[in-house]
Predict the structure.
Amino acid sequence: MRKYIFLTLEGFTFQPNSESVDPDIENLQVIGFAKGKNPKEAFKELVEENNYLLETDFNEVFSYELAKGFEENKKYHYFKKGSPIDIKVK
C-alpha cells in the first residue's frame, strides 16, 4: 500500500500569538493521511475513516504520494536566531 497526504488551499491559519481577526498566513491545510493502491483508493479510505470530513466546508482536496521511508527522513527547521541553521535575510 502507498501512503498519501491530502491537502487543500481552502481555509486559513493564524500565526502563533496573533491578535488579528484576519488570517495572516497564506498556506495549505492538511486534511489527513491515508493508504491505498492509488490516490483514489486512499481518498476513499480517508473519508471512510474520517467521515466528519463530509460535514466540513472543504471541497477541493489534492494529494501527494509520500516517499518510502519519509518518517525516517524527517528534519526540523527553525526561523529564530540560535537555531541549528541561522538564516540571515538581507
Summary: The chain has a mean pLDDT of 87.
